[in-house]
Write a structure and sequence with these properties.
Length: 254
């Protein structure tokens, strides 16, 4: 698998083998949940939505509007298309989160439907990994389309492929995980004070002359620190910054 491109820098991009794809999924599961099955159904303190699966995919209630990209309904559709047996209570054309608040969600943790959901998610970790990779596969094209300055497009593409080809599979893992973790950065809504924090912003910030993975991690640290500075005070995002930094450090592991 991976992730072809017509870009001039893509010739040497490595292809992920099955074992590497499995490793990538385990890394994301570790990053989000420390591989704890109970964490597959979570509602983090300070957030207005549950986070589900190995990638903590967001699920909104009916009519709920937030700046963050919702992922759980798309995941269900992806898994259904792959032939997964979706739990009966989730088989609707546009499933919406049934819990109105965190307390209601936590009180429901041992219900039949919640246990069914955790079992389903645990049995379909490979499908969730494939879904995360599928969202990454379109990221570079989407990012390049959002850039108006030709020199910036060329620079971003060059840096993207430098990272992807560094220390396989860690470079590709860094790009896939960050795109999943903080988005592509092209949405005008997913910003604080008009400034985004996704993969696009990291690649723009990244220095070209350094080791590619170190440069990527350093740029991501700056982008995430900027996000915290720009966030509404009531979100208190500084409490998450060290954890985000620890996640970035896994990109450098040998």
């Amino acid at each position: 698998m991976l992730l072809g491109s017509t870009g001039v820098y893509s010739a040497n991009i490595p292809v992920l083998e099955k074992e590497q794809i499995n490793w990538l999924g385990e890394q994301i599961f570790t990053n989000e949940c420390n591989q704890d099955p109970a964490c597959l159904t979570a509602w983090n303190e300070g957030e207005d939505f549950p986070s589900l699966g190995i990638g903590h995919f967001i699920w909104y209630q009916a009519g709920q509007q937030e700046i963050f990209r919702e992922g759980f309904p798309d995941l269900l559709q992806f898994l259904a298309n792959e032939g997964a047996d979706i739990p009966l209570w989730l088989k609707t054309s546009n499933p919406e989160s049934p819990w109105p608040d965190r307390n209601t969600f936590l009180a429901d943790m041992e219900s039949d439907r919640m246990q069914m959901l955790r079992t389903f998610l645990l049995e379909n970790t490979a499908g969730q990994t494939a879904f995360i990779i599928s969202r990454y596969e379109d990221a570079l094209e989407d990012i390049l389309k959002s850039i108006e300055i030709p020199e910036d497009r060329d620079s971003i593409e060059k840096k993207f492929y430098r990272v992807a080809s560094t220390n396989p599979p860690h470079g590709i893992y860094a790009l896939i995980d960050y795109n999943h973790f903080k988005g592509s950065g092209i949405s005008s809504e997913e910003t604080y004070q008009g400034i985004g924090w996704g993969l696009k912003q990291v690649l723009l910030e990244m220095e070209e002359e350094e080791d590619a993975l170190i440069a990527f991690v350093n740029a991501a640290r700056q982008i995430l620190a900027r996000r915290v500075d720009n966030a509404p005070p009531e979100r208190n995002e500084s409490r998450w910054l060290n954890g985000w930094y620890n996640r970035l450090n896994t990109y450098l592991a040998k």
